[in-house]
């Protein structure tokens, strides 16, 4: 099977509270989206890459990636899962059912090449696929809702993981799982949750905890620091 890459970049980065989406912030002069795309495209033999963009995006033509003939774009949707599904549909003519699709957030530029290679190696012969994940390090509390939430219990973190990306699944299984999960109105915050809903249980491959998603302004400096140490 061949490998395909989808990098959802159609979000507006509301939590960054800026006047432009976070994938178009710069670290060391380069767009975050360019850093993410080049790190991935240079590290694995992808047959192609699809990047869903916001319909009002006008930054893409200024990226390095827009000059790369292996990278195509399509129009994203209102939720991350809709953007990913639109990219999957856009790839339909070129892909075979059992080909692998890796989905990686544009906002995760700190993906380490060794984690990417490890994910592909571990899952390549698996029937479903899986994702990078990192064991939870903090002590976790369960609490009721409220202004001053009161702890009801400490959750055993022994079996808990943070879901990261890339998430890597067989093309046909992923399309069908996303379509049925969205139709059913289920909360689909990553590809893995759609697979879980359809009963195709993903495998976890341990990845570096510094594969952070840039979400709030402070994450920008942190990502710059992490990248400077690779
Ligand atoms: N994304 C997307 N389409 C959407 C929403 C998000 O392609 N409708 C992408 C984002 O561009 C990002 C990734 O999915 O690369 C992870 O989403 P998130 O971190 O939530 O980014 P935003 O939605 O842009 O940020 P926010 O939730 O703060 O608005
Ligand atoms: Mg979002």
Automatic annotation (TrEMBL):
Site features described as Positions MEP for the nucleophilic attack, chain residue numbers: 157, 213
Catalytic activity: 2-C-methyl-D-erythritol 4-phosphate + CTP + H(+) = 4-CDP-2-C-methyl-D-erythritol + diphosphate
Alphabetical keyword list: Isoprene biosynthesis, Nucleotidyltransferase, Transferase
Coiled coil: none
Gene Ontology MF terms: 2-C-methyl-D-erythritol 4-phosphate cytidylyltransferase activity
Residues of the site described as Transition state stabilizer: 15, 22
Pathway: Isoprenoid biosynthesis; isopentenyl diphosphate biosynthesis via DXP pathway; isopentenyl diphosphate from 1-deoxy-D-xylulose 5-phosphate: step 2/6
Biological process terms in GO annotation: isopentenyl diphosphate biosynthetic process, methylerythritol 4-phosphate pathway
SUPFAM superfamilies in the record: Nucleotide-diphospho-sugar transferases
EC numbers, comma separated: 2.7.7.60
UniProt record similarity statement: Belongs to the IspD/TarI cytidylyltransferase family. IspD subfamily.
Alphabetized PANTHER family for the sequence: 2-C-METHYL-D-ERYTHRITOL 4-PHOSPHATE CYTIDYLYLTRANSFERASE, CHLOROPLASTIC (PTHR32125:SF4)
Role: Catalyzes the formation of 4-diphosphocytidyl-2-C-methyl-D-erythritol from CTP and 2-C-methyl-D-erythritol 4-phosphate (MEP).
Record-linked HAMAP family: IspD
Name recorded for this polypeptide: 2-C-methyl-D-erythritol 4-phosphate cytidylyltransferase
Lineage: Bacteria, Pseudomonadati, Pseudomonadota, Gammaproteobacteria, Pseudomonadales
């Amino acid at each position: 099977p061949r490998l395909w890459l989808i990098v959802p970049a159609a979000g507006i980065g509301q939590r960054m509270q800026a006047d432009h989406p976070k994938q178009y912030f710069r670290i060391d002069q380069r767009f975050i989206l360019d850093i993410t795309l080049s790190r991935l495209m240079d590290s694995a033999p992808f047959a192609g890459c699809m990047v869903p963009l916001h319909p009002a995006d006008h930054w893409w033509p200024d990226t390095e990636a827009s000059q790369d003939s292996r990278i195509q774009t399509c129009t994203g949707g209102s939720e991350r899962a809709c953007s990913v599904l639109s990219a999957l549909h856009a790839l339909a003519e070129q892909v075979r059912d059992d080909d692998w699709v890796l989905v990686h957030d544009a906002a995760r530029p700190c993906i380490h090449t060794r984690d990417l290679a490890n994910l592909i190696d571990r899952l390549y012969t698996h029937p479903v696929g899986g994702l990078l994940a990192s064991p939870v390090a903090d002590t976790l509390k369960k609490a009721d809702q409220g202004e001053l939430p009161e702890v009801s219990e400490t959750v055993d973190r022994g079996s808990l993981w943070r879901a990261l990306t890339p998430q890597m699944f067989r093309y046909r299984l992923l399309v069908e799982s996303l379509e049925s999960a969205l139709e059913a109105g289920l909360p689909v915050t990553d590809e893995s949750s759609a697979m879980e809903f359809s009963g195709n249980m993903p495998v976890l491959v341990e990845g570096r905890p510094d594969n952070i998603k840039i979400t709030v302004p402070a994450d920008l400096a942190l990502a710059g620091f992490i990248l400077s140490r690779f």
